[in-house]
Amino acid sequence: MAGQPRKRSRFKTGMFLLENITSGMYNDPLAILREYIQNSVDSIDLAHQGSMASSAEIKIDLNPFEKRIVIRDNGQGIPSAFAEEVLCSIGSSNKAGHQLRGFRGIGRLGGIAFSDRAVFRTKAEGEAIESVQEWDCISLRKIIGERQKKRFSLSQVLGRITSFSSENKKEKKGSYFEVTLEGVSSFRDYLFDITRVERFLSQAAPVPFDPDLFRFADAVEKHLENNLSHYRRYNLLLNGKPIFKPYKDYVRVTKGGLDRLVGIQFFDIKEPKGEIIGVGWFGKREELLGSITRGDDCSGIRVRSGNIMIGDNHLLDGCFREARFNSYIPGEIHIESSELIPNSRRDDFVDNKFKSYFYNGVEKEIGLQISKEIRLSSRKQSQLRIVTPDSKSKREASVNNAKDAHAGDVLQKLLIHCKECPKLQSIIKSFPDD
After folding, report:
1. What is the C-alpha to C-alpha distance for residues 257 and 138, in angstroms, rounded to an integer?
2. What pLDDT, on a 0 to 100 scale, did the predictor assign at position 239?
3. Which of 391, 397, 392 lies closest to 424 in space, CA to CA?
4. Domain 16-192, CATH
5. pLDDT at 402
6. Are strands 300-305 and 308-310 parallel, antiparallel or unpaired?
7. Which one, of 88, 164, 81, lies nearest residue 129 by Cα?
8. Sign of dihedral through CA atoms 307, 312, 313, 315?
9. Cα-based distances in Å from 202 to 192, 209, 213, 332, 373
C-alpha cells in the first residue's frame, strides 16, 4: 500500500540559480542596458499614468576612465516602506497585467555579472528618504567560483553579498531610480564603446524617430499612436546626447550608392479570428536593387514589444522566400496582443499558438509580397543588362547601342513588353535625335 504523500516541501534553491540569471542570461553585454531601460520606462509610465510627458527621461552616463556606468530615470521610484522588500525580491514582480514590459523580476540583476559593485538608489515623490541596496559582486564571483568547497542556498549567498540602508536627507520633490555599476568590464570593453552603445540603443530602445532625417517620422508615429493601445517613446540621453531611431530618407545598399524611400506601407498582423496581433510599417524603396548594408542599422523589419526591440534584424528572415530578402526593407512590427509574450532574453517569444499565428501572418502579409517585388525588380534589371554592358554607364551604353541596328531591334521588343518601366524610358530619351 502506498504511503501517505509528504506535506513538507523538499525543494530548495541553490546559489547557482543566481549565476544562471546573471552571467548565464546575457551573451551580449549590451543587453543589460536594454534591461535597465525596460525597467525605467515602466517606472516612467506608472509615474505619468500613460501620458507622453516631455519631462520624462532616462540618462545613461558611461565613464570608461573610472569604469563606471550610471543609469537614472525620473520615474515613480519605490516608496521607502516597500523599497527593501522590492529590491530584495528576485524572480518576483507585480507588473504582470499592467501593459508593462518587465514582469519576471530579474532584469535588475543584469549588470551584476559585469561589475565589481552594483548600487541601486531610489526615492518616491513626496518623500525625503532615499533607499539604497548594494551588491558586492566580487564576493559573489568568489563564492560561485569556490563551488566545490562549500555550497550555499540562494538566501545565504544574498545575505553575504548585499546590504540595504536608507537616508532621510533628500528633497521631498521628485522621484527616481538610479543604477550605478562600478568596476565594469566586458568582452572587448563593449560597454564603454560609445559608438557601439549608441548604435545598439538607437535600434533597441523605445526612442523617437529623428524628423530631420526621416520625413515619414510624423506619419509613422501618428499611425502607431492611433492603432496601438500602448505606444510611447521616451527621451534617452547617452552622455548627454539624445538618441533617435536610425531610420533615414536614404539607405545605403550593398551594390553601392544610396536608394531613396518613396513611401510607407502600413499593415496589420492578425490571428485567424481577426484579432490584431501586431501593427507594422515598412519603407518602400525607389530602386529595390540590392540589400541594405548592415552598417546602416535599419535593414530588416524589426519586431518591437513595448517599443523595445525583440531579437535582432534577422528575427523575421524565415518569413521571406529567401532569408536575405528581409534585409532589403526597413520597417517595424509593434506587438499589440498580450498573448504574444517575449521570452526572458527578449530574443524571441514564448512558444504558444499566438507565436505561430504571428510568424505565419508576417509571411502572408508582407513576406510573400516583398519577396515577389524583389524578384520582379531583379528580373527587370537582368533584362536591361542586355542593353547595358558591364563596363559602361547606362547612358554611355544606350548611346553605343543606338548605333547598332541589332540593339535597336532589341530595344523595340523591350518597349513592347516593358513599356511601363521608367528605367527603360530614361534610356530611350537619352538617344541622339539622329
Report:
1. 50
2. 98
3. 397
4. 3.30.565.10
5. 37
6. antiparallel
7. 81
8. negative
9. 16, 9, 14, 13, 29
Contacts of 214 (CB under 8 A, 6+ apart): 245, 247, 248, 249
CB atoms within 10 A of CB 171: 8
With beta carbons less than 8 A apart as the criterion, state whether 112 and 144 touch. Answer: no
What are the grid coordinates assigned to 256, written together? 553601392
* Sole residue written with cell 568547497: 149
Domain parsing of the chain, residue ranges: 16-192, 229-380, 385-429
Give the span between the Cα atoms of 332 and 37, in whole angstroms: 19
Outline where 261-344 has alpha helix (H). Answer: none
Q: 3-state DSSP call for residue 183?
A: coil
Give the length of the chain: 434
Do residues 294 and 288 lie in contact, with contact meaning Cβ atoms separated by under 8 Å? no
> Is the C-alpha dihedral spanning 202, 343, 371, 365 positive or negative?
negative
> Which residues of the chain have a pLDDT value below 50?
1, 50, 52, 96-98, 103, 391-392, 394-409, 432-434
- Sheet strands side by side (includes 330-335): 250-252, 258-270, 276-285, 330-335, 300-305, 308-310
Q: Which helix (H) or strand (E) holds 210?
A: none
- In this prediction, residue 62 carries a pLDDT of 98
C-alpha grid cell for residue 62? 558611461
Among 236, 192, 102, which residue's Cα sits nearest to residue 110?
102
Residue 68 has what pLDDT? 98
Pick the CATH number of 229-380 from 3.10.20, 3.30.230, 3.90.1570, 3.90.1200: 3.30.230
Which residues touch 377 (CB under 8 Å, ≥6 apart)? 287, 288, 289
How many whole angstroms separate alpha carbon 363 and alpha carbon 258? 27
Which pTM was predicted? 0.82
